[in-house]
Design brief:
The complex is a heterodimer of chains A (252) and B (672). Chain A has 252 residues and is an alpha+beta fold. Chain A has 7 helices and 12 strands. In chain A, strands 2, 3, 4, 5, 6 and 10 form a 6-stranded antiparallel β-sheet that branches. Chain A has a 5-stranded antiparallel β-sheet with strand order 1-12-11-7-8. In chain A, α1 crosses α2. Chain A is globular, with a radius of gyration of 17 Å. By secondary structure, chain B is an alpha+beta fold. Chain B starts with 5 loop residues before the first strand and ends in a 5-residue tail after the last strand.
Chain lengths: 252, 672
């Protein structure tokens, strides 16, 4: 497996409220995370970076995960713990009141990938020259699309596109959406904030991901595309690539 | 942290009075106009502030044009540091949400009074081309007299214009969101009518029409379910009142009041007893059948025209149905006779046969895709719609900086969406660049209108300052003239501003020589007037010692500066010396030597007078001329006065019978 992570402020915002990273467990599994902070009072970056830091610490101390149920349980518990920490922090610091963040996490093992998310940061998988969004956006417009009330293209231009149904840091318990998929050689797990997913079609995204150029270069190219298309939001991507058969399986 | 701060030196923040999300509201005091105001501060973290501010202000400014007793006045828009703020009228009281919670159930009379004020205010806004987009009791204030004031006009638009809404946020309330807004369509005047209907529902029943576990389930109910009749919770509710709510909250905007004015009019008589039992407002549940008419073409053009007729007859409370009679019998009553052609159609339908009927029932009307009209002219767009079996619906004009006038910007539903044939497609059409009517700025102080002018974003504002007897900063002239219709971004506004009377600053004149003073006079057109001359040990003769007024004072041209001029070093005084002298009388013995025994001396004989001359050398006298001449016969005391000038030496000599008997020089001594 090899991985890449890029976070870019974009062209309009003064602050990068996104955070994320890719963390290699001593046992060899990889955890990738992207968090998109929110909050009107500059606390968005606090929320997202707290979330990432927390999950990194939990991950590095996590017991070895060997089956999907372990991964799912660990992920649900960890996300709940982050939510709790954010609430405690917001209660202590009035400046952070109302802060929140989305999160999308992928635990990548050689056999499977378990993804968990809250909010509208997305996880995609590229397999067999097809791309598929494997996370469910917790957004108002997505709920309307799911209910059949509006089309995908209506959702793209909906004025309330920014309304999230769930976020970390909101009061009360939060239930992440969790999925596990099997992976194979040559697959790519791709996580991003909406600053990326709003700026590219799935088709184009896949084309670039499957490009033969070095991973960092592909990641940088994607960020450039988002910026060329306005760059109104922060752009963050984390990707993990399972090397094709025949290539070395050691972690780069 | 904001408390106590002064925004742009003018608005002193006193205390927080509300807020959340992207904005905080504070009570503040306007130090210039000495009044309390509400200041809404938005925190925006964007790099390109100018662009953002331009768009934000343009939208917010449109709301400041609204003046209505039931609309919170917007006074000012500005920014300081990273705080973008709106200054609004401060209304003491509570939100309508709190009012309903405390006073529920609100009496019918009071509810209608509140609704009348609301519709009056919204009507005023609509007539000015402004759609609120976010009417909810949280945005409506009730003052201490019980009158209502709507706030946050155009803020929704201003915020979306700044693309601030692109940032993620928690769900807002969906209870008052019209179905078309929930679907992401363009908010229209009818969307405001829907929200007003929900507010009225809440006023009368004390509850909201839909409750659900989540915001999404509530939004879906607004999209899918009819508003439950408010009479369910409010017994004895006059039908006329319920009808207002039902008519303003139909799913399909077409069936709502066509204007808020119409709703306002309706509210006026809604409490007349003879209306209490009027028929319940109904939208035909199966009006699809009506719209299905085009399918049964023999002649498509004719049928679509008929359809137009139906859709545009907005005075109808309900639309008659062409569906099978058994479904509609109870509602048809009087309407059938108005639409005799429907009978024909129904008959025609029957002729087609029951199988066809079933098929129609199953498949419904034909579905057509909305064509892409963006970029088409309005008239072309209408033609294209007609060719596709669709109708032109509401036309909303929206200023646009790039797209020329009369070109379609947007349609609802959007292109490629499938809709029933015969459906109206609403269009948003560019009204070209936004024009404004230029205000009259003359006789106003530039600093008072500066922010207004800046907000309009003229291509260029050229300012010429001239001297004038009007107060400094007054705008004396403007071009273009007031009342001109223009596009600010294409206009250079020229202002002539008074600098006040021409003034010259007094310089430091002290030490100036007469020549320098003359230069100063020439340079400044001020007159220097010497009021006095004084000796000065420091300044040379002719130099200015002191001045009035002081350096830096602004004087009108021609004014005088009074100065005291040096006479130079004070001269030392003439020393007046008085020298006492004793002029001795000389006894002449040899002239009369007394002979011994022979003749006794002729004593007392008359003494011989001796001639005395006094010469003086001083300021007034020359030693070459006798100062005084007299004779003595005995020793005499005299005083010789000398006036000795500084640096000079005085002298005197006394001659007795031509012989110098006293002579002295006396040096100047200033102490004498």
């Amino acid at each position: 497996m090899q991985f890449a992570f890029v976070s870019d402020q974009g062209k309009v915002r003064r602050l990068n409220e996104d955070a994320g990273g890719v963390f290699l467990h001593p046992q060899g599994h990889i955890l990738a995370v992207v968090a998109d902070g929110m909050g009107g009072h500059r606390a968005g970056d606090v929320a997202s970076s707290m979330a990432v830091e927390k999950i990194e610490n939990l991950w590095m101390a996590a017991p070895i995960i060997s089956k999907p149920t372990d991964a799912e349980k660990w992920l649900i518990a960890s996300i709940e713990e982050i939510n709790h920490d954010l609430n405690v922090h917001a209660a202590q610091y009035p400046d952070c009141e109302g802060m929140g963040t989305t999160i999308v996490v992928a635990i990548c093992t050689q056999e499977f990938v378990t993804l968990g998310n809250v909010g509208d940061s997305r996880g995609y998988i590229v397999a067999e020259k097809r791309i598929r969004q494997v996370t469910e956006d917790h957004s108002f417009v997505n709920a309307l699309v799911q209910s059949g009330e509006i089309s995908e293209s209506d959702a793209e231009h909906h004025p309330k596109k920014n309304w999230l149904l769930k976020s970390l840091g909101a009061k009360g318990p939060v239930k992440p959406s969790i999925t596990t998929i099997t992976v194979d050689h040559g697959n790519i797990v791709f996580l991003c904030s909406d600053g990326m997913s709003n700026k590219i079609t799935e088709q184009r995204l896949m084309e670039i991901l499957l490009d033969k150029s070095p991973m960092e270069e592909r990641a940088r190219q994607l960020v450039n595309i988002a910026n060329e298309n306005g760059g109104e939001d922060n752009i963050t991507i984390a990707m993990v690539e399972y090397l094709p058969v025949g290539e070395s399986e050691e972690i780069k | 942290m904001m408390i106590g701060k002064r925004l742009n030196g003018r608005y002193k923040i006193l205390r927080a009075i509300g807020g959340g999300g992207m904005a905080n509201v504070f009570l503040a005091h306007d130090m210039i106009l000495d009044r309390d105001v509400a200041v809404k501060i938005l925190r925006l973290d964007y790099v390109n502030e100018n662009d953002l501010m331009k768009r934000f202000q343009r939208e917010a400014q449109s709301a400041t044009s609204l003046t209505h007793p039931n609309i919170v006045s917007m006074y000012d828009v500005g920014d300081e540091d990273e705080n973008y703020y709106l200054v609004m009228e401060y209304v003491e009281g509570m939100t309508l949400k709190e009012y309903i919670q405390q006073n529920s159930p609100v009496s019918l009379d009071n509810a209608i009074k509140i609704m009348s004020q609301l519709t009056s205010a919204i009507s005023h806004a609509h007539h000015n081309g402004i759609i609120h987009r976010d009417i909810k009791p949280q945005n409506i204030l009730v003052d201490t007299k019980g009158d209502i004031k709507i706030t946050d006009f155009g803020i929704a638009m201003a915020l979306s214009a700044t693309s601030i809404t692109q940032t993620n946020s928690v769900m807002g309330t969906v209870h008052y969101l019209s179905p078309e807004q929930a679907r992401g369509g363009v908010a229209t005047k009818k969307s405001d009518i829907y929200s007003l209907g929900i507010v009225m529902f809440e006023l009368i029943t004390g509850r909201l029409p839909f409750e659900g576990e989540s915001a999404v389930s509530i939004a879906l109910k607004h999209l899918q379910s009819e508003i439950p009749p408010p009479s369910k919770w409010s017994a004895n509710l006059p039908q006329s009142v319920e009808n207002v709510i039902l008519k303003s909250t139909t799913k399909d905007a077409f069936y709502r009041y066509s204007t808020v004015d119409e709703m306002h009019e309706d509210l006026k008589s809604v409490l007349d007893e003879d209306r209490f039992n009027e028929p319940k407002f109904m939208v035909e549940p199966d009006n699809d059948a009506t719209r299905a008419i085009p399918i049964i073409k023999p002649d498509r053009n004719i049928s679509s025209k008929t359809d137009t007729q139906i859709r545009t007859d907005k005075t109808k409370k309900a639309i008659p149905s062409a569906a099978p009679p058994e479904k509609t019998i109870k509602k048809e009553k009087k309407k059938k006779k108005k639409w005799p052609w429907i009978v024909t159609l129904v008959l025609l339908l029957m002729l087609v046969g029951t199988t066809a009927m079933a098929a129609l029932g199953m498949f419904g009307p034909a579905r057509v895709a909305v064509p892409d009209l963006v970029g088409e002219s309005l008239s072309d767009g209408e033609d294209i719609l007609e060719q596709n079996g669709l109708l032109l619906g509401d036309i909303t004009y929206e200023p646009n900086e790039e797209v020329p006038k009369d070109v379609i910007l947007k349609t609802t539903p959007k292109a490629t969406r499938n809709v029933d044939e015969g459906e109206p497609v609403n269009v948003v059409v560019s009204s070209g660049k936004a024009t404004i009517e230029l205000d009259d700025y003359t006789d106003k102080l530039y600093e008072d209108v500066q922010s207004l002018i800046q907000n309009l974003k003229f291509d260029n504002v050229r300012i010429e300052e001239v001297f004038d007897d009007s107060p400094r900063g007054t705008i004396i002239d403007q071009s273009p003239e007031a009342g001109a219709e223009l596009v600010p971004s294409e206009t250079t506004l020229e202002l002539t501003i008074s600098q006040g009377e021409e003034m010259a600053a007094v310089e430091n004149l002290i030490g100036m020589s007469p020549q320098e003073i003359a230069d100063f006079e020439a340079r400044t057109e001020l007159t220097v007037n010497t009021t006095r001359e004084e000796y000065s040990s420091e300044l040379p003769e002719g130099a200015v010692i002191s001045q009035d007024p002081a350096e830096g004072t602004e004087l009108s041209l021609g004014d005088q500066v009074n100065v005291v001029v040096s006479l130079g070093e004070r001269p030392l005084p003439v020393s007046n010396v008085v020298v006492p002298v004793v002029i001795e009388y000389l006894e002449k013995e040899e002239e009369a030597p007394p002979e011994e025994g022979e003749s006794p001396p002729e004593v007392p004989g008359d003494p011989v007078p001796q001639n005395i001359q006094i010469f003086i050398e001083d300021k007034d006298n020359d030693i070459s001329e006798p100062y005084e001449e007299f004779t003595i016969t005995e020793s005499t005391e005299r005083t010789i006065p000398l006036k000795i000038e500084p640096g000079e030496t005085g002298a005197y000599k006394v001659l007795r019978d031509g012989e110098v008997i006293l002579e002295n020089e006396i040096a100047y001594n200033e102490n004498q």
